[in-house]
Amino acid sequence: MRRERSRPEATHGVGSRKRLNNDYHDREKTMAERFAARIEREVASWDGVTVSPHRFGGIEFRVGRRELGHLHGDRLADLPFPVSVRRQLVEAGKAEPHHVLPESGWITYRLRNEDDVQAVIDLF
């Protein structure tokens, strides 16, 4: 039976770049999850708001039968507005047209940094 020898982990070169790259993505994922958790904690604390799984993935926030919006994973928030309000938000740079239904009243907000957490909460 052949025994595998353990090799010391590389401190430079491709192996270390791969490890650093994985560490970076782990930190990014943790930060993004923290963003989504903070948004969920705040919005879910409002009177009458319920949180449940969204039919296209992620979680949705509702008051009664009305959807306030939803989070897709850790990076994307979608919220419904009247088309005229959506137009104003997009023109002001406060949101993007919805990633699937750009002509609807829905907007998309991409979570990229700490400031985006409060911006999304404000949109809700």
What does this 3D model show about the protein?
The chain is an alpha+beta fold and 124 residues long. The protein has a single domain, classed as Aspartate Aminotransferase, domain 1 (Alpha-Beta Complex). It has a 6-stranded antiparallel beta sheet. Helix 1 packs parallel to helix 3. The radius of gyration is 20 Å and the shape is globular. The termini are far apart. About 5% of the residues have low confidence.
CATH class: Alpha Beta
Low-confidence stretches: 6-11
The biggest sheet, with number of strands, parallel, antiparallel or mixed sense and barrel status, is: 6 strands, antiparallel
How many DSSP helices?
3
Radius of gyration: 20 Å
Shape: globular
Number of domains: 1
**Which fold name corresponds to the CATH topology?**
Aspartate Aminotransferase, domain 1
The second-level CATH architecture is Alpha-Beta Complex
Q: What portion of the residues fall into strands of 2 or more residues? A: 15-25%
Judged by helices, strands and strand pairing, the structural class is alpha+beta
Share of helical residues: 40-55%
How many strands in all? 6
Element order, helices and strands?
Answer: HEEEEHEEH
What's the end-to-end separation, in Å? Answer: 62 Å
Q: Overall pLDDT, averaged? A: 84
Biggest β-sheet: strands ordered side by side in the sheet: 1-2-3-4-6-5
Question: Short summary of the structure?
Answer:
With 124 residues, the protein is an alpha+beta fold.
